[in-house]
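Collaborator request, handled under Task 6.
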Amino acid sequence: MREQQKTSNFVFVAPLESVQPDYFLTYEDKTAGFSIGYPDDWVLSDAPDTDALVSFDDQYDWTTYVQVFSWVGDTEKASFGESRTNNQILEQMQYYWSEYCEDSTFEVDDRICSNFKVIDSMVLYTNDNRKVYYNEVSYTLEYDDPSYPDQYPMIATSGLIYGPNGSWEVFSESNDVAFANHSDEVMNMIKSFSLVATPTPTPTPSSWIAILVVLGAGFAGVAVFIVNKNKKKTPTTQVVQRPKTTQVTQQSKIICPICKQPNRPTSKICGKCGNPIEGKDKPKIICPICKQPNRPTSKICGKCGNPIK
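Structure tokens returned to the collaborator:
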């Protein structure tokens, strides 16, 4: 059992060597540079309306899904390069999530979100000891679709992992009943996440031919002969591609003009500094204590909790 250390309101789980379950398969994307385990009875699915790199469903008519996102340029540092504590990073994730829930509309998101609550928040570690900032939240969804007329209690998790060039997010969403059955599998998927080396491009035979031709016509005939001879003996490098069952979309990120943070295309405010980044800008209330921009209707600062109105 992991040793737990209690700090502030968050539980920090000390790293401990572990492996993914035997019934897990491994999905590896060498182009994007990551791998993740998933249950062998789950299915790879298309995610055409998101910029997820891969999506897994527990069944074809999902009750739980898990997606992987990459946020290039996102770092553990704050807007102006200052260090952030674990608590600050976790709280910023919660703040961004609550704002997204509150701002959702039928017109833009095809659903509305309410009753947002944080269930759990902690720092844990992957099987290869990478730090994960983990949040688990609940909320209620209503869809702009007559086929789904009810209110649906949902539970979602997010595991944020920082790498050398940005962050990775392993995100899950479930109805509240399904999450009770899938919570262990979702946690094991987060812990199985790993970064892998991306392939290094090698010069093609034609590029060598072009270089030798430039050196002189006398060399050209010899060069062509050598390259053609080598082509017969050298196997073609296999190009690793994502499975055809996974539709990878490259939607552009919205870059915050204030702190340069990449944000999701549907974002209305920056997830790092709170600046409006979509539609008509609304004035922000700046916290006099921590200088965090807040919504005009905010009564307390979303970062430090200081009363601001």
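The cover message to the collaborator said: "The first helix runs from residue 86 to 103. Confidence is low (pLDDT under 50) at residues 1-8, 206-252. Please let us know whether this matches your experimental observations."
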